[in-house]
Amino acid sequence: MKIQVLASCAFLSLSILVMVAAGSQPAVEVAKQFTPPGSAVAHFVTYSSTTGQIIEEQPAVLRAHLVSGDSDDIVAAYSSRPDGSIGPDIVVRIFHNNGSSYVQIGEFTYKERRLWVQDFRTFGLNILKLTHDGQYALVVTTEVGASAGGHLEVMRWEPKAGFVSCFKDSPPPAFDFNFHETVDTSEITLSFNKYPGQLNVRLPLTYIWRDGVFVPK
Asked: 128, 158, 192, 210: most buried by Cβ count inside 10 Å?
């Protein structure tokens, strides 16, 4: 394993980036080798809709094509409390296979938050297809507590800038997030009902992917 200190891209501070030989390692094994000190790989958790008990857990690790339409990239979320409870922070790291090794190309830290839970399952780490020609984005949704709503971030890769936001202005906190891919674009709808039947609630807000950015529809 080689360790290098590399200048970071946009939104990232200078940090130690670890290179792990690519080979044919499973994504979870790669992610574990990049684990921040004092943390562990977080979990995608599915809860019972009747008892609230955990019925399934999977590592919060995804394979994706973020750098290009055919790139081999891995996204992983880490927490000092991987069981999904509110902890000191959530760290999301992105790794790219450069042909011989996986190199960390991005890191985002969310203080005192956890991955968003929606419909009785962890929903806070996703990959969204932006266009039919194979452009994808990283979606991170976090919460400080369910009553405050979830905070959505959507980021895409720019060769010279690194990961950049897909929004001109940050979307407001919401309580339900729906991603919809059409033939040639993508849409995101935010809903603001804390519970069914709630009165005097803001109408849903839909964003559409247009000219390289999500804008209100």
From this structure: 128
Largest Cα span, the chain: 57
- Could you report the per-residue pLDDT of 193-211, keeping only the tens digit for each? 988 778 889 999 999 999 9
Alpha-carbon distance values, 216 to 10, 131, 152 (Å)? 25, 17, 15
Instruction: Say how many C-beta atoms besides its own lie within 10 A of residue 26's C-beta.
Output: 12
**E strands in 7-150:** 15-21, 40-41, 43-47, 54-59, 61-64, 73-79, 89-97, 101-111, 114-115, 117-118, 121-122, 125-129, 136-143
First to last CA, the chain: 47
H-run or E-run covering 30: helix 27-33
Backbone angles phi, psi at 174, to 5 degrees: -145, 175
Global pTM reads 0.85
Give every CB contact of residue 148 below 8 A, 6+ residues apart in sequence.
173
